[in-house]
Amino acid sequence: METIPILRVQDCLLVSIQVDMHDRLAAALQDDLTNKIVETHARGVMIDISALEIVDSFMGRMLNNIAAAARLLDAVTVVVGMRPAVAITLVELGLTMTGVRTALNVDRGLALIRRLIDDSGAPFGDRQA
Amino acid sequence: MSIHNSALPALLAKHRPSVLGAWLKRLLEGGLVQGGKVKESELSENATRFLDAVLIGLKTGNMTELQTPEWTPARQVLEALSRSWAVNGFTPAETATFVFSLKEPLFNLLRDELLRTPELLIAEIWATTQLVDRLGLISIEAFVKNREEVIKRQQQELLELSTPVVKLWEGILALPVIGTLDSERTQTVMENLLQSIVDTGAEIAIIDITGVPTVDTLVAQHLIKTVSAARLMGADCIISGIRPQIAQTIVHLGLDLDVVSKATMADAFALALRRTGKSVRSNGATNEDKR
Which ipTM did the prediction report? Predict the structure, then answer.
């Protein structure tokens, strides 16, 4: 069975989705990812969807789910590389993915994750609301 | 009342030169040539071509159904004429007069020939009126269709003209929206904005709605859509240029824009600079020093 590789970059996990997702693949990815976060103590998850030309409601919900699960494990999720046409389609479908952070490309995504981790890593008293 | 074997085709074929002459006279009296809009030679050429095309159509004896192949030449002449007249700024009345002024010469012809049979004369006049009216309608239809095409094209051009995306600074885009945001424009605006975000790698987009006359629920929804789409691409949006009146309307409608907004483009730009870690400061020199 095909799987989607998860790369570790410092304390981040990088997932690049290049094929159309179906139920089983999505479930496997969620499983692998949550296990990997616990295993590696990762603080950030970056999901690259620049290769996808079609993102439907199923895919949108899966990204939301991954972000929610990662948040419970104290990791931030950033979706990067969404194409303009995909963004317009998602908005038309009413899927604004409010629970997920987004960035233009991998570079920006890494910077965003770094900033988010630094913010959340501050001592309790200093934490920004 | 319709007649199956109208005498008109035969009569018109026989008296074609005199009818054409009378018709041209009427057309010239109409003031089109005097107004300088069309040359006399062009007008007479068109009239001749049209009359010949009508004769072709009449040969079949069919005077009520003009969508048949026999009438194609007549329709084509009329449509081509209406199109060129519409482009050259003729009024619909002037275009229609071209066909309708054919009535008088035709009626005169019928009267001269059928003077002794009044019943037949009336039937013929009725059939001729119907024929000319139908031809007139064809020319008007072609005229209006052409006008509509012009309007549609201009709308399209306006749409493309009025949605520029401006790069204000490294990583900061501005989108001045002018006019009402309808669904179609929102689509264009969104596509332009998102493409520009990809091209310039912008982190912040300022949507300025100073030029939007009113904001209702639909416009607000379109704004929210644009902001959400930009956010999915990893860019934050700031809405600027909300006039006091519009701010009140938004509150009255109970809309939640859920986005950072600033009163003016300048404020929004200042915020954008701050967010991207840049600042503007005075170097102490005044305008006077520079002069």
Answer: 0.76
Which strands form A12-16's sheet, in the order they lie side by side? A6-9, A12-16, A44-48, A76-80, A101-103
Q: Which two tokens stand for residue B244?
A: 């006091």
Cα separation, B164 vs B178, in Å, equals 10
Cβ distance A104 to B201 less than 8 Å, yes or no, reads yes
A6-120 maps to CATH 3.30.750.24: yes
Give the tens place of pLDDT for each residue, B65-119: 778 888 888 888 888 888 888 888 788 888 888 888 888 888 888 888 888 888 8
Distance between A109 CA and the closest CA of chain B, angstroms:
9
Strands A12-16 and A6-9 come out as antiparallel
CATH number of the structural domain B166-275: 3.30.750.24
Contacts of A63 in chain B (CB under 8 A): none
Which residue ranges does chain B devote to CATH 3.30.750.24? Answer: 166-275
Residues in chain B: 291
Give the start-to-end residue ranges of the domains of chain A: 6-120
B238-278 pLDDT tens trace: 999 988 888 888 888 888 877 899 989 999 999 999 998 88
Q: How many CB pairs under 8 A join A and B?
A: 55
Q: Of B201, B138, B195, B215, whose CA–CA distance to B170 is shortest?
A: B201
Delimit the CATH 1.10.490 region(s) of chain B.
8-158
Q: How far is B43 from chain A (nearest CA, A)?
A: 53
Distance between CA atoms of B243 and B238, rounded to whole angstroms? 15
Task: Give the mutation candidate from B172, B224, B232 for the A interface (greatest A CB count, under 10 A).
Answer: B232
Assess B232–A contact: CB distance below 8 Å, yes or no.
yes
Residue with tokens 């590789």: A5
Which tokens is A72 given?
Answer: 């419970």
Helix extents (H) in A41-105:
57-72, 84-92
CATH 1.10.3470: does it fit domain B8-158?
no
User: Who among B195, B225, B231 is closest to A84 (CB)?
Assistant: B195
pTM above 0.80, yes or no: no
Say which of A80, A91, A96 has its CB closest to residue B234: A80
Q: Which amino acid is at B106?
A: L
Sign of CA dihedral B82, B86, B90, B94: positive
Residues B241 and B210: beta-carbon distance below 8 Å = yes
Quote the CA–CA distance of A40 and B76 in Å, as a whole number: 78
Residue A2: count other Cβ atoms within 10 Å of its Cβ.
Answer: 7
